[in-house]
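Database export, one record per block. Field names are fixed; values are copied verbatim from the stored entry.
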Amino acid sequence: MAFHIKNKETDALARKLAKAKGIGLTDAVHEALQHELDRERSKPKQADLAVQFCRELRQLGNPAKGQPADKAFFDDLSGNA
């Protein structure tokens, strides 16, 4: 399979990496792409971040000191008291 790098800067980076590691261009590009893919996959998912945020927020709260979420509470919030 052919893969042509048409961007001069990208070509130069690939060649610098290959030279620095003492490997061929194909291996250098492969390693760089694999490294970047592994890095992306290791990032936490948005849903996991949201769940963690909710857990941390819950730990900070104190439901015993909160107001009941009844009609009077919502009326007070909206100014309909």
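Remark 1: The two ends are 72 Å apart (CA to CA).
Remark 2: Helices lie at 8-21, 25-42, 46-60, 71-78.
End of record.
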